[in-house]
Amino acid sequence: MPPKRFNLSIFSQDDDEDEAPVPRTAKPKPKSASPAPPPPPASNDDDEEEDDYMSMAIPEPTSARETLTERMKRQQRERELRGRPKSKAELAREAAEKREAALAKSMLEAEEARSNKGLRMMKMMGYKPGTGLGSEKTWGKDDVRLEPVGVALKENRAGIGHATEVKRKLEDAAGPEGKRVQVAPEEFRERVKSEREEKRAQARFYAAQKVLEGLDMKRDFGVEEVDIGKAREIPLSSINVLWRGLVMHREEQERERRARYDMEQGLSAPRLPGYDRLHELDEVDKIALGVEPKILGEKMRSYVEDDAEEAEEEDEELREFEELPWAEKLEMIVSYLRTEHNYCFWCKWKYETAEMEGCPGTDEDSHG
Amino acid sequence: MDSGRPASKRPKAESSIDPSTNPYLAHMYDGSQNANQAGRLNGDGDGDWVLNSFERHNTTAEQAMKAENGPSNPFNGKPLSNQYFKILETRRNLPVHSQRQEFLDMFHSTQIMVFVGETGSGKTTQIPQFVLYDDLPHLFGRKQVACTQPRRVAAMSVAKRVADEMDVILGEEVGYNIRFEDNTGPKTILKYMTDGMLLREAMNDHNLDHYSCIILDEAHERTLATDILMGLLKEVSVRRPDLKIIIMSATLDAQKFQHYFNDAPLLAVPGRTHPVEIFYTAEPERDYVEAALRTVLQIHATEKEGDILLFLTGEEEIEDACRKIKLEADELLRETDCGPISVYALYGSLPPSQQQKIFEPAPPPRRPGGTPGRKVVVSTNIAETSLTIDGIVYVVDPGFSKQKVYNPRIRVESLLVSPISKASAQQRAGRAGRTRPGKCFRLYTEAAFKKELIEQTYPEILRSNLASTVLELKKLGIDDLVHFDFMDPPAPETMMRALEELNYLACLDDDGNLTALGKMASEFPLDPALAVMLISSPEFYCSNEILSLTALLSVPQIFTRPANARKRADEMKALFAHPDGDHLTMLNVYHAFKSPEAQNNPSQWCYDHFLSLRSLQSADNVRNQLARIMERNELELVSTSFEDKNYYTNIRKALCAGFFMQVAKKGQSGKAYVTVKDNQDVFIHPSTVLQQDNEWLIYNEFVLTTKNYIRTVTHVKAEWLLEIAPIYYDISTFPKGPIRTALERTIEKLKRKDAVNGKARRN
């Protein structure tokens, strides 16, 4: 008879929503708990440096050698790890790792096998390593058992096929390389620190962009005061890529504002209390209320298309620049300010000469 | 029957027999008329007995039925009772009955046959009787017919049933023989026994000369002993062409048996089954227990009359599920129109009286004409093949069962919740179609059924430590274990580990020959480590205590810990606790149990102290049986005086003599221990009585539950291990590490002590 599917409809309230939580430690963390030093970052970046967006780690620029500070930090972290008593969960995880490793290793290939008396006795009975036991008449050559039956520990009450399903979903979501790595507290701290630095660089970059806009406008277009109206007359492609993004962003905001304004103008029709959520009205009601759905719809579409066109004629140069890390962009804009305008972003001062006498240095640190 | 032959001549199962004293051992039949005449023993000389006119291996179903119709019992000549005829009527309605002639025809034509009949076809009770009427074992050389069962309970209950059917007293013509309990007598012609018992008998009777026919029942279960017996019978069948062999299986995958036994013919009796509709879930389940409960309640609320069978994995899970179903069903009963429900648990460790409850009918409707009630049985895989519950129409199958696993690489043996096989799933579904067309709800998707379930459950031989088996095979005279014709050969490493362990236990010498100790150990129906411990215990002046302990370790858990009284149970256990460990605590329990105070009212005493009366009683029984074997082997029963400060020390040392390969040393941090040689991190099972940390522990089991656990542990000392098992603790075989260092330090200490003592002596 044909198998059928059944649905546990009556008693299932929470079945469709919250899908099963993904097991947190799907994969044991690679090496961080062991006292062995981690491999130098640059040596094998192909395997190790999988882009793990789940952990939000920002890929650090890889330097070929570990610097002194890095080594000190690493050693400090290792000392901390060694000194700390292990938690129950950690011990259990280590035990499980050790168990799995031992289960995966054939005793026949182990170093001790040579002195194993059991194996010696078997050889005396005519056993040849690499073959199975039993009478050759009984088993076909293909299904000889060479390995013991595996030991799989079931840790939850997930049904048959559930683990595969979760794995599949996870891979769908994260791509084939999507792996979860558990993060040690030190790594977490460093990650938070680098995130904070990123944010700071971003803010500085925007500030520098504005400064540069003012200076460039004045020098290239003779505009004293930055004015949106005037800026708009300048074709985007002729604007310095360093601050072109700023203008683009401003334009977008302006467009949005106008669109909102236009829409509100179009909605001057009377509204019934409780019916101010237009999308809930059906066509007939809208006409009855004088909302003119067709016209409104067209208008909306035109704005959408506008945006779409804009997006299509994408500015390759700008995209490349925007993709650079914040710190790098900031550095580029700061040095441009120095060379082109004799302006030090850190002193907040435009010097008269290219020597920029009085400025303590090129980087932020030298400015105290 | 007792025509001048002393009954004591009948060889007992465990005794070794000198063939010359047994007039029957040399007797071989080739089936010729001549031998028939010569071999025919005329019973009491009563020529009127109907069976005397039967021609052996040439009878018909008609003849047998006529004999069965009486009026006197064809096997003992006594008049037949009314109950006999009543049962006879139901027997004639069994599916196998209609194929009796077909069976006999095949039985006559071949030495080995495979018989397939589903549970409930009557094969276990009827086929051996069919054989009796044709093989007439008692008339031809006083042989017996043996029918093996994988489980003790089944052997006992089937023997009882068949004794009733044949209108004889259990233990006379029909008996049973299970480990630690032999209920057979000189008249016995049909013997139900565990497969393990037949294997033990074969150790002393390599050709199984007691038997004219051997029936291996429930062969589909592929227990370790059945697998070994099959390999053995395959060899014996060549040496004994007169021996008839029937392999009985409840599942249709019998081709494997046929192929194994050189294409033996097959007879299949169709079971009385109805179609079963199979349902799968649309999505995999996040929690199979919860899904199972929902499904049961949904069936109760929406499906027509019929009982439900739910398969879960273990005692705790089952009891919990029963409680929840009852609660939810009561709720449903108040809110809706559905009928009353009664829920029963079924698992192996349940007392038989409780197990009987599952056969009670479903409850009646609350009011006349109302919705009929429903019975729900929540069971382990006992209900998969071995037990038939009538009235089951719905089966809920989450797809898991607890299965034994053993891995030689880390020597761990555990019951683990594992996915069942496709064959198992089909078997479970079949349970729904016993009474009328049924439904089976599988709590997994069809894709998962196809992709994730293995075809057949791994036979036990692939999931077991083979130390016992190897010892048995050696005792069976099989020297080439590597090429023994296993139906499913185990992994080479499993064999290697078993041989190695037996060598360390000094049961096998370096060339793989059985030693004197090995021979003696094989006399005991015990694990080799336990047997060796018991045999060496007189040297430690505590064989009485070690005997008790061995018995206690051979029975199910003696401590009970009901979910609603855990704290109280733990307090009671603490009364018996010995600071050096669980083994000694068990011994304290046993001694207390044997005290006059407890024996005054044992069941009340056990109840009060959260102990299992059944386990303790069976430990008592096991102890008596083992004591007899010890006596036969001239092992003395001695004790150290309880006042002696070495009383417990001696027991702990004796433990080391058997379990020196199961030792763990305290690890460097926290609560973890490390097993010696295999180097596994393990934790002490929370059930232990040990309070403080000890450097070295001996453990009874290494199990996996949620973690790596060692269970039943006792504190020992490194110097004992070095002294008692010098080969295993040969320092040069240990890799550098904490264990080697600790052992080296102990050796140094011993040397210093020796030096001081030597000096003292010289002076």
Q: For the CA atoms, what is the radius of gyration of chain A?
A: 33 Å
Major β-sheet profile of chain B: 8 strands, mixed
Largest interface: A-B, 71 and 95 residues
Q: What is the CATH first-level class name of the largest domain in chain B?
A: Alpha Beta
The fold-level CATH name of the largest domain in chain B is: Rossmann fold
Number of helices of chain A: 12
Portion in beta strands of chain A: under 5%
Structural class of chain B: alpha/beta
Q: What is the strand tally of chain B?
A: 21
User: β content of chain B, as a range?
Assistant: 15-25%
Number of domains of chain B: 5
Helix content of chain B: 40-55%
Tell me the distance between the termini of chain B. Answer: 77 Å
Helix content of chain A: 40-55%
Gyration radius of chain B, to the nearest Å? 28 Å
CATH superfamily of the largest domain in chain B: P-loop containing nucleotide triphosphate hydrolases
Main sheet: strand order of chain B: 4-3-5-2-6-7-1-8
List its traits.
heterodimer; A: 368 residues; mainly alpha; two-stranded antiparallel sheet; 3 strands; B: 763 residues; alpha/beta; Rossmann fold; Arc Repressor Mutant, subunit A; 5 domains; eight-stranded mixed β-sheet; six-stranded parallel β-sheet; 28 helices; disordered N terminus; G-patch domain-containing protein (chain A); G_patch_dom (chain A)
Descriptive report:
The complex is a heterodimer of chains A (368) and B (763). Chain A is an all-alpha fold. Among the domains of chain A are: 185-267 and 325-366, no CATH class; 275-299, no CATH class. In chain A, 48% of the residues lie in helices and 2% in strands. Chain A contains twelve helices and three strands. A two-stranded antiparallel ribbon of chain A has the order 2-3. Chain A is elongated. Chain B has 763 residues and is an alpha/beta fold. Chain B has five domains: 52-269, Rossmann fold (3-Layer(aba) Sandwich), CATH 3.40.50.300; 276-458, Rossmann fold; 465-523, DEAH helicase family, winged-helix domain (Arc Repressor Mutant, subunit A); 526-659, no CATH class; 660-761, no CATH class. Chain B has 28 helices and 21 strands. In chain B, the strands form four sheets. Chain B has an eight-stranded mixed sheet with strand order 4-3-5-2-6-7-1-8, sandwiched between helices. Chain B has a six-stranded parallel sheet with strand order 9-16-13-10-12-11, sandwiched between helices. A five-stranded mixed β-barrel of chain B has the order 17-18-19-21-20. In chain B, helix 5 (123-135) packs across helix 6 and helix 19 packs antiparallel against helix 26. The radius of gyration of chain B is 28 Å and the shape is globular. Chain B starts with 32 loop residues before the first helix and ends with a helix. Residues 1-47 of chain B have low confidence and may be disordered. At the A-B interface, strand 1, helix 3, helix 4 and helix 5 of A face strand 9, helix 10, strand 14, strand 15 and helix 15 of B.
